[in-house]
Write a structure and sequence with these properties.
Chain A is an all-alpha fold and about 200 residues long. Chain A has ten helices and no strands. Chain B is mainly α. Classes of the chains: A mainly alpha (about 200), B mainly alpha (about 180).
């Protein structure tokens, strides 16, 4: 079999087929799963944590956890929803731990106020790169739940129902969070007018 | 559908999550109303801008090193688990034997000689589970989201922000769930 064939086979194997192969003892199937989802899990971790530093570690930890539980995965939901749920829960635990640590070190500050200082002044934003960082800062300034819902919906293309399952909330809660995330972003980015393009 | 309702539904209209009938009504209104059309265009533009920006900050493409790191961590965890799976039962067994031996030695019935009264076993208490209640946030647009976007009043209130309370206060359309 040529390298081309092997590559196309790897790309076309469905998630459920990979899970089946892994359950039958094929460890290679798991490395394909990691390759397929590593970037997306890192993106989710990056979004929830609001910082890229821990995203790599947490996303890797999610795969480790998935490895030891994949054999009991009942496939009630899709593999990616399951993986997203694992990484999301790990991120939340990580944030809680961090909050406790910073609280104990008398350095506690609430997340909702932490982003206030990042707000860029109108004069600061004039270049392409700066606009991008202003937009990223606006997304990071959203409350955790709204930020996560927004990125799941806009970047990962998940349905409100899938997001609800991942986050362990109702579909209505997801819709409400999405509505407010969009509204806030519109307000925060209004000042950049119609001329900016990326 | 009027402007006020339509504008509250624009984000759902944009992401295609409205029920077909509501989406049709809202869409028709947007086509006919200059103000709502502008609002919708602005929303589309903002979301496209944000998406493009977020796409550029997506972590670097998958690397072999990342995968190797994951597999190495798994291997390490497996080894730890193997050690734990042997060490814990062995330690428990040693502890049990030591406890039974010392107990029976000091109570004069060395290794199950005679038993005295007091065999009652304390009842094991089932720990109570506490349902986690989400913190109540604040907000507005209750009626529209309830009637048109299939979002319950509870969900709306539970997922709004402090700064949205003022708007909520002015909303007297709620008939209750």
């Amino acid at each position: 079999m040529s390298a081309e064939h092997i590559r196309s086979d790897r790309e076309t194997i469905s998630d459920s087929e990979l899970v089946r192969r892994f359950k039958e003892g094929n460890e290679g199937a798991f490395t394909l799963i990691v390759g397929r989802y590593q970037q997306r899990l890192m993106q989710v971790a990056r979004t929830v944590l609001g910082d890229g530093d821990d995203a790599m570690d947490i996303s890797q930890e999610a795969f480790v956890k998935a490895y030891f539980h994949l054999k009991t995965f009942r496939e009630d939901s899709s593999l990616y929803t399951w993986l997203y749920r694992i990484v999301y829960n790990l991120c939340i635990s990580h944030l809680r731990r961090k909050k406790i640590v910073s609280f104990l070190s008398f350095d506690y500050h609430d997340e909702t106020t932490a982003f206030d200082s990042k707000e860029p002044g109108p004069g600061d934003v004039c270049e392409h790169r700066e606009i991008m960082s202003a937009i990223n800062a606006a997304v990071d300034r959203l409350p955790l739940k709204q930020r996560t819902v927004f990125v799941f919906r806009q970047m990962e293309g998940l349905t409100h129902g899938e997001i609800a399952k991942i986050m362990g909330v109702t579909e209505g809660a997801v819709k409400a969070s999405y509505f407010h995330a969009v509204k806030k972003l519109q307000t925060m980015l209004k000042r950049y007018g119609d001329d900016y393009e990326l | 559908m009027n402007c006020e309702r339509t504008q509250k539904l624009l984000s759902f209209l944009h992401d295609g999550s409205l029920a077909p009938e509501i989406a049709r009504e809202a869409g028709e209104h947007v086509e006919q109303c200059e103000r709502c059309r502008q609002e919708y265009a602005e929303l589309t533009r903002t979301l496209s801008l944000v998406r493009k920006s977020l796409e550029k900050r997506v972590p670097a493409a998958p690397t072999v090193a990342y995968r190797e790191m994951v597999m190495r961590k798994i291997h390490k965890r497996k080894q730890e688990r193997t050690v734990v799976s042997w060490a814990v039962p062995v330690a428990a067994a040693i502890f049990l034997v030591a406890s039974v031996t010392s107990y029976s030695f000091f109570h004069g019935d060395f290794l199950f000689g005679s038993r005295t009264a007091g065999n009652s076993v304390p009842a094991v208490r089932k720990t109570e589970t506490v349902e986690q209640v989400a913190p109540v946030d604040e907000g507005s647009i209750i009626t529209t989201m309830y009637q048109y976007a299939d979002v319950s009043v509870y969900d709306v209130l539970n997922n709004l922000d402090e700064d949205a309370w003022e708007t909520a206060a002015g909303l007297d359309e709620v008939d209750g769930e």
